[in-house]
Design goal:
Blueprint (H helix, E strand, L loop, with lengths): L2 H4 L13 H11 L3 E5 L5 E6 H7 L34 H11 L3 E6 L2 E7 H12 L6 E8 L4 H11 L4 E8 L5 E8 L5 H9 L3
Antiparallel strand pairs: 1-2, 3-4, 5-7, 6-7
InterPro entries: ACT-like_dom_sf, ACT_dom, CBS_dom, CBS_dom_sf, Diverse_CBS-Domain
Keywords: CBS domain
Protein name: CBS and ACT domain-containing protein
């Protein structure tokens, strides 16, 4: 799956001349957490988040506080060290970027123009769908030897019971000698297939 399949294309953007107050209004109105800042060519200049604005807003405990800070241009607090991806990038590669850089959103650019955005929410939703966790199902974890053919052998057992497999993931074990296969099976009663797998000495 590629980034273009999951990215949000209908974006709310601002230019760096807009004020912090205008950004705050858009964040609240659209119930979003990030706004990309672009120039007249649609090239990304920065990102502002709800956290950036919350940190800049005067505390309610400050005496004589006012919201004059909110009249400053958004360029005064936007993040400019921006990591971007492209529509043809793979979703799993983009997920690694989120993890490595501790970011909450990733602008997607094409020919230097902003064309989309991926957030943690889109990523999480995508992986839930890929794993089949949003469907009635049962997860069965099987520890197998780290050798060819183990997945095919267990898949045949599911076929014998006419049970469809939503997804399969391979998880590393504590030792190199074994791997753990995580099956998401389309059944809510997996007792028979589990018993069959156990009898097959897995």
């Amino acid at each position: 799956m590629k980034v273009k399949d999951i990215m949000k294309r209908d974006l709310v953007t601002l230019t760096k001349e807009h004020t912090i107050k205008e950004a705050l209004h858009l964040l609240e109105k659209n119930r979003i957490r990030h706004i990309p800042i672009v120039d007249e060519l649609g090239q990304i200049q920065g990102i502002v988040s709800d956290r950036d604005i919350r940190d800049a807003r005067p505390s309610i405990f400050e005496q004589h506080s006012n919201d004059s800070e909110l009249d400053k241009p958004i360029s005064s607090l936007m993040s400019t060290n921006i990591i971007t991806a492209e529509p043809e990038d793979l979703v799993q590669e983009v997920a690694s970027v989120f993890y490595l850089y501790h970011i909450g959103c990733l602008p997607i650019t094409e020919d230097d123009r902003l064309v989309g955005m991926v957030t943690e929410t889109e990523l999480l939703h995508t992986f839930v769908e890929l794993m089949g966790a949003d469907k009635p199902s049962t997860q069965i974890d099987v520890e197998v030897s780290n050798s060819p053919g183990q997945l095919a052998t267990i898949a045949l057992i599911f076929k014998e019971f006419d049970i469809n497999i939503h997804s399969v993931m391979v998880y590393p074990s504590e030792t190199e000698a074994t791997k753990t296969l995580l099956f998401r099976a389309q059944t809510i009663d997996a007792r028979q297939v589990i018993e069959a797998i156990q009898k097959a000495w897995f």
